[in-house]
Specification:
Shape: globular
Radius of gyration: 23 Å
Number of domains: 2
Helix content: 40-55%
Largest sheet: 2 strands, antiparallel
Strand content: under 5%
Number of strands: 2
Distance between the termini: 53 Å
Strand order of the largest sheet: 1-2
Structural class: mainly alpha
Length: about 300
């Protein structure tokens, strides 16, 4: 094993890339880009343009790589808007259904959960937020503790959870309660789905959200842990050369299609995705690079 390479100046980075057959429309603009974007972060996008493990395909430019980065950035912004819509709706439905079926303090009653120890562990992790000596307590807790003498009700408690915690709370509910939420949440949907779909899909959306929030490369991501497939997903079958089935970004949009409450928002997002593909058509082919079917827009629209 060798040691890490020394830090390069920005001019040295450019020289290294030029030696690997990369062209520059403007070296001064490239330096400005490298001042605000880490070289390692940007070079994650170079692989699409490589002729071999090191050298670039002839006539590839630094700007091609930067454009691919911008495409991926815009794609993540688009997806985060859908994540927000799904997350807010899930918070609302869990709090509403459990609060009315049990009590407004039911989240402190372990007997309503499949795994009481798992839920106890969640409450333990959140306990510091309720500590009166904690000056960084969330405002929703400060306001409640100053005005009310009871514990935080579920319709306030639910706002303290991350999306990951929220999806795990749903997964830890008893089957009849997951079914209750599924029935009331999706009773007007034209595709029949069940609580097993939702349990799987919420975890998938959490994974996608984390990739977006941590600025990881998303556009051609292959998800090793695939969400549960719906029986109507006829056009999602993708396989590697070895025959292994894979799940890609197109599948993520199918998940959003089946799970999102805001139909108008989703259709707008499909239109925005189409505009995004057109804007970066010089470097992105949805069918080849993202494994989208040729009729993807028609298939996704609600």
């Amino acid at each position: 094993m060798s040691i890490s390479k020394p830090a390069l100046t920005r001019k040295e980075m450019i020289s290294l890339l030029k030696n690997r057959n990369l062209k520059f429309n403007s070296e001064s603009n490239a330096i400005e880009i490298l001042k605000r974007l880490n070289y390692q972060k940007l070079m994650v996008y170079r692989f699409k343009f490589l002729e071999d493990s090191i050298n670039f395909i002839p006539n590839t430019t630094f700007e091609n790589i930067y454009d691919l980065y911008k495409f991926d950035r815009d794609l993540k912004f688009l997806i985060l808007e859908l994540v927000e819509s799904v997350e807010l709706a899930l918070r609302t439905q869990i709090a509403y259904e459990l609060g009315h079926k049990y009590s407004i303090h039911c989240h402190f009653e372990n007997n309503i959960f499949l795994n009481p120890d798992f839920h106890n562990n969640l409450l333990s992790k959140l306990s510091y937020k309720f500590d009166m000596s904690n000056i960084d307590r969330p405002l929703i807790i400060v306001y409640h503790q100053n005005k009310y003498k009871d514990q935080l009700p579920i319709y306030k408690f639910i706002e303290l959870l991350t999306l990951g915690q929220l999806s795990k709370v749903f997964k830890n509910l008893k089957i009849e309660d997951r079914d209750l939420i599924t029935k009331t949440y999706y009773k007007n949907r034209y595709h029949k789905i069940n609580s097993k779909h939702l349990t799987s899909w919420f975890l998938t959306i959490t994974e996608v959200r984390n990739i977006c929030a941590h600025h990881e490369k998303l556009y051609n991501r292959i998800f090793e842990i695939s969400p549960l497939k719906h029986k109507d997903w006829k056009d999602i079958s993708n396989k590697t050369s070895k025959g292994k089935e894979i799940f890609t970004i197109y599948g993520i949009f199918l998940v959003f299609k089946y799970i999102i409450q805001d139909k108008e928002l989703f259709n707008e997002s499909v239109d925005k995705l189409d505009i995004l593909f057109q804007k970066y058509s010089a470097i992105i082919n949805p069918m080849e690079d993202l494994r989208f079917p040729s009729n993807w827009k028609e298939a996704l629209k609600l």
